[in-house]
Amino acid sequence: MPNGIITDRGKRRTALYWAQHVTHGAFGRPVGTDPFNPPLEDYAATALSDEIGRAPVRAVRYLMADPAGTVLYRLPNGSSDGPYRYATTAEVSAAAALGLAPSAMVEFEFAMPPNVATGETYGEIGLFLDAAITATDWATPAQVTTPGTLFYSLTLGAKTIEPDEEIVRRIALKV
After folding, report:
1. Is residue 5 a part of any domain in this protein?
2. Does any domain span residue 8?
3. Structure pTM?
4. Which residues on neighbouring strands pair with residue 159, listed in sequence order?
5. Which of 44, 63, 71, 156 is deepest in the core (most CB within 10 A)?
6. Is 162 a member of any domain?
7. pLDDT at 82 over 90
8. Mean pLDDT (the chain, rounded)
9. Which DSSP symbol is given to 33?
10. Band of the pLDDT at 157, cuts 50, 70, 90?
11. Closest to 118 (Cα-Cα) out of 159, 154, 169
12. Cα–Cα distance for residue pair 58/131, rounded to 1 Å
């Protein structure tokens, strides 16, 4: 079978698509019977196992490789990826004029507002494409009008949500 590549422009166009279509981040209860040793993610999943609720993505940022950058990401093996810096407004505008993202790495930020799920335990998060909710900053599963497509899923160790705690999650994905 011949080998092929995804070109730089193809990666940047895909990153732009993600940035335009990832609409919500969701929090779910822990997966499996041992919340501190969750099972691997399910490639066939279409939803979180037991969703608590979801929030609109509140920030989308592009990451640019930069030896002087200050942004690092921890990889699943424990090592760091980076350094990066966030793309400037001028870089984003110049790339958008070409129908591209400024880089092939995009970060999504979403948050669980304080006191919406106090006492719940979460252990799974996900990103959804083209979803819709009836609320403005947080929606329970009953307030999801269009579930969208589960695009990214991550199982975590269990964490109990404390009173007055805002939980902010940033997920960076590279094409």
Report:
1. no
2. no
3. 0.90
4. 122
5. 63
6. yes
7. no
8. 91
9. S
10. confident
11. 159
12. 14
Give the integer Cα–Cα distance in Å for 127 and 114. 20
Cβ-proximal residues to 44 (8 Å cutoff; 6+ apart), any chain: none
Secondary structure letter of residue 31 according to DSSP: P
Q: Is 4 inside any structural domain?
A: no
CB count within 10 Å of CB 73 equals 17
Q: pLDDT digit string (tens) for 52-67?
A: 999 999 999 999 988 8
What local confidence, expressed as pLDDT, does residue 32 receive?
76
Rounded CA gap, 75 and 125, in Å? 16
| Average confidence (pLDDT) over 56-81 | 83
124-148 mean pLDDT: 96
Q: Are 60 and 53 in contact (CB under 8 A)?
A: no
DSSP SS3 for 163: coil
**158/95 Cα distance (integer angstroms):** 39
The token pair that represents 124 in the structure block: 């799974």
Work out how many domains the chain is built from and give that number.
1
User: What range does the domain containing 119 cover?
Assistant: 23-174
Asked whether residue 39 carries a pLDDT value surpassing 90, the answer given is no
The pLDDT value given to residue 73: 76
Strand partners, 74: 80
Q: Both ends of the chain: CA-CA distance in Å? A: 22
Neighbours of 80 (CB within 10 A): 9
Helix (H), strand (E) counts: the chain: 2, 11
